[in-house]
Amino acid sequence: MAGMMVVGQLYTVIPLFALMAADWGSGSSAVAWTATAFATAYAVGFLFAGPAADRFGPRRTIVAGLTVTAMVTALVPLASSLGAALVLRAVQGLVAAAFAPSAFAYIASRVDPNRRVTAITWLTSSFLAAAVLGQFAAQAIGQAAGWETVFFVSGVALALGAVGLWLVLRADGAVGKTTVADAFAAMAGLLGNGRLLLLYGVTLTVLTGFVGVYSGLQVAGPPSLAGDAGALLALRASALPAMLAIPLLTPWLARIGPERRVALSLGAAALLLLVCAFLTGGVAIGACLFVFVAGIAVAAPGLVQAIGARAGAARGSAVALYTFFLFVGAGLGPQLATLIAGFGFPAVSVAAAAILAVGALLALGLMVRSKDARQL
Q: How far is CA 372 from the centre of its chain?
């Protein structure tokens, strides 16, 4: 739940673009930068949050990050202009970044090894579910009580989450002495690994395509759904069962190598988006998005596993870089959608499909190289 609340802050603004633009006298394309400002700062924050979790302990880092995020979130509605809102959204993203790397670190140190893959899958699925639930809740609350209320409610929920996790998480053990400089040195070494660099390239495509499509629904939605808030709400909710089902399939999915899993799931997601571009009915588009989201939900934890397997002792730094590239992609998604919005939702869908296809091909190439290396 805490993961969904934190990551949901990236997506809450998507259904609020028109409301926020009206208040600030800006266009929806300009307001889309509120998503990008959060996502970019969020991605940069991961590079510091990983070392913080190692230095101070994941429980302390999670609780402190949630507390500060709650306060900054409640300040966003007080912004008097788009410029001020962009600054607050950037600060919000920076402090919200404390959660994900710390949560991964907590799982690595506190969860039984036999349950870690399942725990990671549930965690990454909650991040993806936030894309749907965050938009769903924001649209419902925004229409009923105004966009400002969305942020006030989010601030209260995050504060309650901080208290709840302080009570239920196990206390931190002995903390390390890793400095930020040590962490950046380890990251630089990881980026010198060609295969890891390609995996990070794959990671970049995942949320670029995912967020791009959902942003496209808002700014360039299919003509049959344009202006129908209820239909858009239902369309966003249609993907939730896929996110809940994938973690339950983890034992079966774990039998497939992580790079093969990533290649197949991203390939399937790209194919479904391509089909989606030629559909006009809400039910048909919803069915396509259901399978598309399932593919993304399989790919994200597969990448964590593949990167961790190649990182050796620098696993913490490797996962921090994974989250960095993942959410840089999330920041690019809204810009992709607004850039192509003039050509309609089919163009957005095709562009996102092309990006995910590139990710699938990179993962496939890595899989083939690994197979060839084993045969030598």
A: 33
CA distance 141 to 133: 12
Q: Which residue from 264, 246, 253 is spatially nearest to 129, judged by alpha carbons? A: 246
307-341 confidence digits (pLDDT tens) = 877 877 667 678 778 888 988 888 888 888 888 88
In this structure, are residues 13 and 31 in contact, taking their beta carbons and an 8 Å threshold? yes
d(CA 232, CA 215): 11
The pTM for the full model equals 0.77
Read off φ and ψ for residue 331, nearest 5 degrees. -75, -30
Q: Which residue matches tokens 């959204």?
A: 89
Q: What are the residues whose beta carbons fall under 8 Å from the beta carbon of 368, sequence distance 6 or more? A: none
- Say which residue the tokens 């496939």 belong to: 364
Q: At what angle do helices 17-24 and 147-168 cross, to 10 degrees?
A: 120
Cβ(303)–Cβ(274) under 8 Å?
no
Dist CA 39 CA 204 (whole Å): 13
